[in-house]
Amino acid sequence: MTRARTIRGGHALKATYSVSIPPSAKLFTSDGFRGTASYRFRSAGKTRLTAGDTITVNHQVTAPYRTFASTTASFSESGTQLGIRAQGADLYNGTNEYGSVYLPGAEHDGSVTTVKLNSQSDTDVWAKAGIMVRNDITQSNTSPGYVALVATPGNGYLLDWDSDGDGLLDSQDSTGTATYPSWLKLVRDGTSYSGYYSTDNASWNLVGTTGEADFDGFTSTP
What is the pTM of this model? Predict the structure, then answer.
């Protein structure tokens, strides 16, 4: 608590406090705080002011993982779980706004990538979370070799890809209704990718397969 008996006209009282949140294994931990102040001007009664906010704490993402965002985003890692909070408008055609936790060079001919999607906020029916592959994740508007296998709150499971190597997603297969948790599996065969989803990590459903002839961008290693 900070007090001042009298503050002269044209002056101010400043106080600095630190706020801490108890340790948590959650990817993103939020807690609220509130500050109050009261003052009396001349002989008038007391006036009380209250202000507050919410603090969100995340955990550092560690090697070998890296992070990149082409929009406002935050990232977290806890045990085997990875978390992303991003404010991108979309991920299709001329819009490439995303946050990513990625492994350089992870994809190759014959690779199989599987992730468990525990949850996704229903910010929009086209909001996307899942697996992204491209020659260079950090070149959001230009890098070819681009494919994304995702779940959406309102449009099921999607396999999106760049059919002409210009760095923009322009082709799409879709199926099902997304539920959580879901498992997504992306399988590479040469320069072609097939995407699958599962609700139990045992039975797999095909979302779609990219056309091999479409992928000029996959001649280099993602």
Answer: 0.81
